[in-house]
Amino acid sequence: xxxxxxxxxxxxxxxxxxxxxxxxxxxxxxxxxxxxxxxxxxxxxxxxxxxxxxxxxxxxxxxxxxxxxxxxxxxxxxxxxxxxxxxxxxxxxxxxxxxxxxxxxxxxxxxxxxxxxxxxxxxxxxxxxxxxxxxxxxxxxxxxxxxxxxxxxxxxxxxxxxxxxxxxxxxxxxxxxxxxxxxxxxxxxxxxxxxxxxxxxxxxxxxxxxxxxxxxxxxxxxxxxxxxxxxxxxxxxxxxxxxxxxxxxxxxxxxxxxxx
Length: 260
Hints:
Elements: H1 2-16, H2 18-21, E1 30-35, E2 43-46, E3 52-55, E4 59-62, H3 68-81, E5 90-106, E6 112-116, H4 122-128, E7 136-146, E8 149-156, H5 157-162, E9 177-182, E10 185-190, E11 196-199, H6 206-212, E12 226-230, E13 236-240, E14 252-255
Parallel strand pairs: 5-9, 10-14
Antiparallel strand pairs: 1-2, 1-5, 3-4, 5-6, 7-8, 7-9, 10-11, 12-13, 12-14
C-alpha cells in the first residue's frame, strides 16, 4: 500500500511539472495539501506575503523559499512530532505559482507577466500573450538566469514549425524572459510607386523589394539603383544594386530617374 501511494505521489509531481518539482514557494502561490489516510487534513490555500500558511492542528507554517518537497517534509515532521499523525505522508501540489512568473515582452499582442502553472514552453507563453504581432520578427529570444548568470537562447519560430522540430520549444522556468524583436526592415525611395519602409522577408532580393514598393514609377529605371548599407563597423557604404542582390536589415534602396 505504501509503495502504491509513493508511486501516486511521484506521478502527481511529474504531472505538476517543473514548477511543482523544483521552484521554491513564494507569496501568492496556491497550493493543495493532502495527508495519506487523513482526508480531514486536506487543504487548498494561498501562501501569504510573509511566506506562511495556516495549516490545521499545527498552525502557521513558514513555507516561503522552500521547494515543494521540502515543504512536504516540514509539514509531515510537524504532524508527526506533535503526535497528530504517525509517520505522516504529505503530498503538496502547486495549483498556481504566482510567485514564479515569466515575462513576455516585445512584439506580442499582450506583453506582460504570466504565472507558471505546470509546464510552460516558449510556444505556450507566446500563445498566452496572444501571439506575435504583424510587426514581430521570426526570432524569440529567451533569457534565463541561474546562479547569478544569464543565458540567452534564440529560437526561430517559423523554422521550428516548418521542420516540426519541437525540441527547440524549450521549457521555461520562473523569472525567464521571452522577447520578440521587431521584424527586420528595409527602406526604398526614389522613383517607385510607394516609397517607404517595409518588412524584410527572408532572402529578399532587390527586385522583390521593388515589387513591395509597387514597382517603378513612370520615370523610374532599374539601371543604376543603389543600396546604402552600414558595415560591421557602422560605416555607411554606398553600393551598386543588382536585381538578384539579397537585402540586409536596414538597407536603403534608391531607385533613380530614367534619363530618357
